[in-house]
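User: I need a structural model of Flagellar hook protein from Chlorobaculum parvum for a docking pre-check later this week. Nothing fancy, just the predicted structure tokens so I can convert them on my end. Input:
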Amino acid sequence: MRVSEQSLFNTYTKYDRLRQSDIQRITEELSSGKKLLKPSDNSVDTIRALRLKSLSTELDGYNRNTEMVRSTQEVAEGAMGAIVEVGSETRVEITRLLNTGVLDYEDGQVIKQYLESARDFITNQANAQVGGIRLFGGVASGSDPFGPDGTYNGAAAETTVAISKGVELNTTFNGSDHMGVNINSGKMTAVEVLDSIIGIIDSGDLTQLHTATLAVDANGTDHGDVKLLEAFDIGMEAMMEHRSLIGNQMKVSEDIQSQNETIAVNFSQLQSKLEDADYSGAISELQKTQTAYQALLAAFNQNKDLSLLNYF
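Assistant: Understood. Predicted structure tokens for Flagellar hook protein:
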């Protein structure tokens, strides 16, 4: 049966289009470095790659939050550490004052100025901020949470952000808890004690140092009426306890950040495996496809002019 010229031409054009399409696809793969150029190339791998991109985007958000949390934690822990250090030094002076009193008026003024400096330092540190956000004001972080006399004007509710699925850490803190605020007065207990001692020094009757008391309800406990040194210790213990809690959060954020970085590397490798071109394989395939295309052209050229008349 004679094969018509039209049939030969149709067969040639069909395979010509296929070979040219293959060559174009492989060339684009090599030039772009991606083997998934469109969803139809591999629908399953395309879906997997899109899912990995979505997870990577989510992970990037967690990592940004972690950086913000760690910055906040470092400043907050540093502020509380400075308060605890100054508080420890101030306690030594309070104890000395209770034991020996003052030598004269000038000696009393020196001690008074020292206690005022300690008080001001503590309140300033309690108003620590990052980028205009007061860390110990809770959700009311736009202005200083503590007044000069240690009165708390912040909020009890805290701000948190997610740093991993199901894990949220603070970006602001409840200053009432962290700074040992006395519920009875609304002031930082340690600052209230310092103001009381300063007032006694101003009065000139230092015997009150041994008799004066404060009604203290702080850190979840109603301590009742306690002596000044004991009240100071209650306030400082509350701060040390909550400083430790911030330290625990810092360890959590550090561990999760390390975990997230490892996951990010794994996601990147998986995505690369799905999307990136295998250059050696693509070049080999291109060479095979070009050889097949050249063979197609040669076969067509040999057969297009065939005729029985050529054999007579």
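Before docking, keep this in mind: Residues 71-267 form a domain with the f41 fragment of flagellin, N-terminal domain fold (CATH 1.20.1330.10).
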